[in-house]
Design a protein that fits this description.
By secondary structure, the chain is mainly beta. The protein folds into three domains: 120 residues, no CATH class; 70 residues, no CATH class; 107 residues. The protein is 4% helix and 39% strand. The chain is built from two helices and 24 strands. It has a four-stranded antiparallel β-sheet. A four-stranded antiparallel β-sheet has the order 5-6-8-9, with no helix packed on it. It has a four-stranded antiparallel β-sheet with strand order 10-11-14-15, with no helix packed on it.
């Protein structure tokens, strides 16, 4: 099994604020399942909060250019959001190898330039955020409401105790991975200021990378994380169910096979970690187990599977592309998009804490 990705870059224009007229009369979205989407709007990309069942939608902001690479970070209290168009977050099937089915979608090769915008979710005002002094791996709001950029600085063959940005980092106990520094910048008065440097590792499956930064412990919700190809699943113990699923695809000797989540069945692949794929089945109205209708994904793509109440959302891992929302009670597809990005559930707010 091997991981794959593709990244290309080109330039785009500057931001503009979304129209603010009639926001007070916009239809409410709370009664139904509430999703956040980045979706094309003419030559721009719109950030919207939608109820795909009831049809209500609130446009929160617009940004120049396409939605490719879009990812979203919320302040914990949901008063602000950071929308980041990241060339490293284009759609990719995520893995491949001998015997792996062909993916249902081609890897995305859109040409975009990295750009970042902060949105006031109450006033809909949009501000451009300049890049941090070094390449950010994540941009997120801390538990205190501040906006942070997290970088990973490769320290190559550093051994023992080494100075980095005036801090002494201890690698004397390093046994796995490559030594690195987790660098944290805080956005303050329109500029990025260095606030912390911590020892970390990169280059192996259990590397903490940027998340070793102390400020990473309380960050708010992020679409990239919410769309990870991992889920809490249970073993399928019923022999008849296992037999029906084996007729769709038989479990392999290297650990790939079926598991259950929220009443549906998903094909899991096993590497260093277990991941969810786009081979997903359910029990139809007549009791037969069949693949989800109109899903578009295959067992050759990593996907996020996120149940909420009677609904389950399926979208490509991390990028949130090609979303499908199913009603598990009515047994029907209620929402699908070929062009939206960063599609996930609207998160729940958390109180800020004092720094």
């Amino acid at each position: 099994m091997r991981l794959v990705c593709a990244v290309l870059v080109v330039a785009c224009g500057g931001p503009r604020a979304a129209p603010t007229a009639n926001h007070a009369t916009a239809p409410p979205v709370e009664p139904g399942p509430t999703l956040v989407v980045l979706e094309p709007a003419a030559a721009e990309c719109a950030l919207r909060r939608i109820d795909p069942v009831g049809g209500a939608a609130i446009e929160l902001a617009r940004f120049p250019g396409a939605c490719a690479g879009g990812r979203i970070s919320w302040r914990p209290d949901l008063e602000r959001a950071l929308v980041w168009f990241d060339p490293g977050n284009l759609y990719s099937a995520g893995y491949g190898g001998a015997g792996v089915p062909a993916p249902g979608h081609r890897d995305e090769e859109a040409q975009i330039t990295e750009r970042r915008y902060e949105v006031d979710l109450a006033t809909h005002r949009v501000s451009t955020i300049a890049p941090a002094p070094e390449r950010a791996v994540e941009i997120a709001y801390g538990g205190d409401g501040s906006l942070y950029a997290f970088a990973e600085r490769d320290l190559h063959d550093a051994k023992g105790i080494v100075p980095v940005e005036g801090r002494m980092l201890d690698f004397t106990q390093l046994q796995e991975g490559l030594p690195a520094a987790a660098i944290t910048y805080r956005h303050d008065g329109g500029t990025w200021r260095l606030v912390d440097v911590a020892a970390t590792t990169i280059g192996w499956d259990y590397a903490r990378g940027w998340s070793a930064a102390p400020e990473a412990a309380t960050i708010g919700p992020r679409s990239y994380d919410m769309l990870a190809a991992h889920a809490a699943t249970t073993e399928i113990r019923d022999a008849a169910t296992r037999g029906a699923l084996d007729r769709i695809a038989r479990s392999t000797s290297d650990g790939d096979g079926w598991a259950e989540i929220a009443g549906i069945y998903v094909w899991m692949i096993s590497g260093e970690f277990v991941s969810t794929t786009g081979r997903i089945a359910w029990r139809g109205g007549a009791g037969a187990i069949t693949l989800l209708p109109e899903l578009g994904f295959t067992g050759g793509e990593l996907v996020a599977i996120r149940p909420r109440g009677r609904f389950v959302l399926v979208a490509s891992s991390n990028a949130g592309a090609f979303p499908r929302l199913y009603d598990l009670v009515a047994r029907r597809l209620v929402y699908a998009s070929e062009t939206a990005r960063a599609v996930t559930w609207w998160p729940e707010p958390r109180a800020l804490h004092s720094p």
